[in-house]
Design brief:
The chain is α/β, with parallel strands linked by helices. The chain has helices spanning 11-14, 42-55, 78-87, and strands at 17-22, 28-32, 61-65, 89-90, 120-124, 132-137, 143-147. The longest helix has 14 residues, at 42-55. The radius of gyration is 17 Å and the shape is elongated. This is Phenylacetate-CoA oxygenase subunit PaaJ.
Amino acid sequence: MTDPEVPVLTIEDLGVLRSVSVDDDGGVHVELTPTYSGCPAMDAMRDDVVLALTHAGYDEVDVRMVLSPAWTTDWMSESGKDKLRTYGIQAPSGSAPVRDAGPIRVQLAVKCPRCDSLNTRELARFGSTSCKALYECRDCLEPFDYFKVL
């Protein structure tokens, strides 16, 4: 199943698919964690999971949204990050910061997914979705989304 907002990613690539289990009676139980609690794509993802499993022959499908622990870009697969870059969205770089006392890492540059230049600038903190920022490459002059480290 693909992410409705980024169709080159599966929900497994994205790290949204947390678990799948089949009970003794043949019922399927799926846990999804949204990229953020207000993610508008979660209803579509849930419906897609139910539809796919129903078509696969499962009569009882239970999809549960799990908000804790909160989703992090650390859960994205390396394959998913590669697919994002190929699609023209720069994948998150680094790991989500540990939320304890001390210095906070600041990202200095975001590499352009088209020409690999570091000569980029942020145009908008929020891009096509809240989990992405809009950047522009100053070398190839192309705008691109950057999937934020969360």
